[in-house]
């Protein structure tokens, strides 16, 4: 069986930046000269919210004639996917294998952030379970599905920059030979330090979300090194969408979700951005205000 459709999967696509990524992927892809059909898999953990968002997008995009229903080359489908649920990941993997034979781009957008000042080991564990371990587990399952020349785009954050930890920890996170086990060990060290309340002395910040995103940005570099070694031409990038008005960031944020979607969409589709930036790079828009 041959599969001619290019396939892009977006996690957390039911709202916020994820929703805008799906919409802008459809619009940008349709404006390219490629005539190869594209399937976008909008995924969400809540089936009702996910299906509603897919239906809303079908309506919104109707006048643009980019979706297959309207004579375009982009097929938009909803799949239920909770990145913290092993069975849900396995179910989606089966669908992709059977219906599409592989994936061309995986956009890891889903994440959580506690509101306000909440901080203890449970906040850290819950945040890590989605943002770090959920993303990593999904990548581990889906990496074998990514076709040669494919891409993984991790929506991280400037809030997870190396500046949030002390110099010694920063050096550990940036070591050229850090592997995934070493990174997991660092993330566990933070959890332990928060539990023992020694995190300040050890050079960690009072931030579960920031450290989870430092983990995502670091994971990206490790995966890029792995892909380079394997020689499959898979590119892995992380990015910051900027400070974007969404349920996560609130009303004060200056950017729209469409503006936040700009870098992730470029990383998914643009040929030049991949040539200009080494594998494993972290990208942010210079106007992102983060
Ligand atoms: N907004 C900003 O200013 C900003 C800045 C820097 C980075 N980011 C990053 O940008 C990405 C999108 O954020 P956003 O602002 O659009 O946030 P948002 O509006 O809160 O949307 C988050 C999305 O992730 C989904 N999600 C959460 N846990 C999930 C799980 N276990 N499985 C599957 N989906 C899950 C949510 O689903 P539900 O609707 O079911 O909760 C929702 O669709 C995140 O990675 C965030 O860290 C945002």
Low-confidence stretches: none
According to CATH, the homologous superfamily is NAD(P)-binding Rossmann-like Domain
Annotation field: number of helices:
10
Q: Using only CA atoms, what is the Rg?
A: 19 Å
How much helical structure, as a percent, in the residues?
40-55%
Beta-strand percentage range? 15-25%
Structure ligands: NADP nicotinamide-adenine-dinucleotide phosphate
The CATH class designation is: Alpha Beta
**Adjacency order of strands in the biggest sheet:** 3-2-1-4-5-6-7
Please identify the structural class as seen in this structure: alpha/beta
Oligomer, anyone? Answer: single chain
Taking the sheet with the most strands, its summary is:
7 strands, parallel
- Provide the CATH topology: Rossmann fold
Number of domains: 1
Number of strands: 7
Task: Write the element-wise H/E pattern from the N-terminal end onward.
Answer: EHEHEHEHEHHHEHHHE
- State the end-to-end CA separation: 46 Å
Mean pLDDT: 96
Shape: globular
3D architecture notes:
By secondary structure, the protein is an alpha/beta fold. The protein has a single domain (6-114, 132-160, 214-284), classed as NAD(P)-binding Rossmann-like Domain (Rossmann fold, 3-Layer(aba) Sandwich). The chain has helices at residues 16-31, 47-61, 86-99, 121-142, 167-174, 180-196, 208-230, 257-260, 262-269, 271-276, and strands spanning 6-10, 38-44, 74-80, 103-108, 146-155, 235-240, 282-284. Helix 6 (180-196) runs antiparallel to helix 7 (208-230). The chain starts with 5 loop residues before the first strand and ends in a 6-residue tail after the last strand. Bound molecules: NADP nicotinamide-adenine-dinucleotide phosphate. NADP nicotinamide-adenine-dinucleotide phosphate binds at residues 11-12, 14-18, 44-46, 49, 82-84, 109-112, 130, 134, 155, 157, 240-241, 243-244, 246-249, 253.
């Amino acid at each position: 069986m041959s599969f001619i459709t290019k396939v892009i999967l977006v996690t957390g696509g039911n709202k916020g930046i994820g929703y805008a990524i799906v919409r802008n992927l459809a619009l940008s892809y349709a404006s390219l000269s490629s005539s190869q059909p594209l399937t976008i898999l909008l995924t969400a953990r809540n089936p009702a919210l996910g299906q509603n968002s897919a239906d809303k997008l079908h309506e919104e995009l109707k006048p643009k004639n980019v979706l297959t229903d309207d004579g375009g080359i982009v097929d938009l489908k909803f799949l239920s996917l909770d990145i913290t649920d092993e069975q849900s990941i396995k179910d989606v993997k089966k669908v992709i294998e059977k219906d599409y034979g592989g994936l061309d781009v995986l956009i890891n957008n889903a994440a959580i952030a506690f509101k306000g000042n909440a901080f203890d080991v449970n906040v850290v564990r819950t945040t890590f379970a989605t943002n770090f371990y959920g993303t990593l587990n999904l990548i581990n399952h889906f990496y074998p599905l990514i076709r040669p020349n494919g891409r993984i785009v991790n929506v991280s954050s400037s809030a997870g920059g190396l500046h949030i930890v002390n110099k010694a920890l920063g050096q550990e996170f940036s070591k050229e030979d850090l592997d995934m086990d070493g990174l997991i060990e660092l993330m566990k060290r933070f959890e332990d330090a928060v539990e023992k309340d020694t995190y300040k002395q050890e050079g960690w910040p009072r931030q579960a979300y920031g450290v989870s995103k430092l983990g995502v940005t670091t994971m990206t570099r490790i995966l890029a090194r792995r892909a380079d070694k394997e020689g499959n031409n898979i590119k892995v990038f992380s990015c910051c969408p900027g400070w974007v008005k969404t349920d996560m960031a609130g009303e004060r944020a200056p950017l729209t979700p469409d503006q936040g979607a700009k870098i992730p969409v470029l990383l998914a589709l643009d040929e030049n951005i991949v040539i200009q930036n080494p594998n494993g790079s972290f990208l942010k828009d210079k106007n992102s205000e983060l």
